[in-house]
Write a structure and sequence with these properties.
single chain, 334 residues, mainly alpha, repeat, transport
Length: 334
Amino acid sequence: MDTATIQSPVGSVAQALRLKAKHESQAFTPVLMAGATGGLIEGVCVQPLEFIKTRLQLKQGQPAGMRQVLSEAVREGGVYQLYRGALPELMGMIPRSTGALASLESTKRYLARVAPDPVTGKLQASHAYAAGAVSGVCESLGFAPFQVIKVRMVAKEHLNRYASSWDCARQLVAAEGLRGLFIGLGPTLWRVVTWNTLYYGTMHNIQAEVFDKSPIANPVLSAARKMATGVAVGMTATIFNAPFDVIKSRFQSQHRGPNQKYHYTLPSIAMVLREEGVRALYKGFLPKALLLGVGQTIGYMVFSEALGFYSDLLAPKQPGAAAKSSSSAASAQQ
């Protein structure tokens, strides 16, 4: 038997697998790029709210308002103080948003392909919530180290301790090891998975049942409707994850050791309830709700638009189109 005859099917399978892998890689690249773009723009827009929210959450005792925290920050270093800790926040927004939105989109595509809705053939409503939960896990793992550094930079008790974000990271690793960069990962997972599940699952279903079925021709009004809906859904989801966010900030501002106050997520929530009351679990709620409602909606809308842009930009050109383009160029020159 001819060796070429034996190897031909094997070679064909190998070539098909290589082409499939190349196609999947090309299809996934725009998702990663769109996620990074959405995260960076979101981070720049909402950093002052992030600063105020973190300061409010770290205050123990008498509740303070946004105006008081804003005045203190301006006295400490002017308007630029609101961007203290912005470097790790912005650096973290890229892997955070890329991990969250890319995993969200990939999970939605996978579930729509392997278990589509029996009626529509598209993603099932419940699976949209599952995709949101998966994105929350990916986001938490990618963003946790940057959040620890940001909280240390913002906390008043560490105000003169670190010269810069890099110095904060260096001192943190030297004192507590690499594990120090993942302080508060437990409450971070509770916080992010809860919010992402509710927000992205609900927004997908509103998109499918309302926006797609009742589109608005005016692009400005269409964007405004989506923004208003996203803010409302985001602020509602924040009601459920706010206690975990307060505990996360408390975890990340403390030093590890025998005297640390907070150890586990749910017992820490119970402790705060006993010592400070329910209101303490919602410190910084207004800036946090605005931060997530407005910020994540901006990021999600930018991601959606950027995904279409990058997909068109990176789409392989068809040979026929290239030949037609060359023919047109030649005709124009004659």
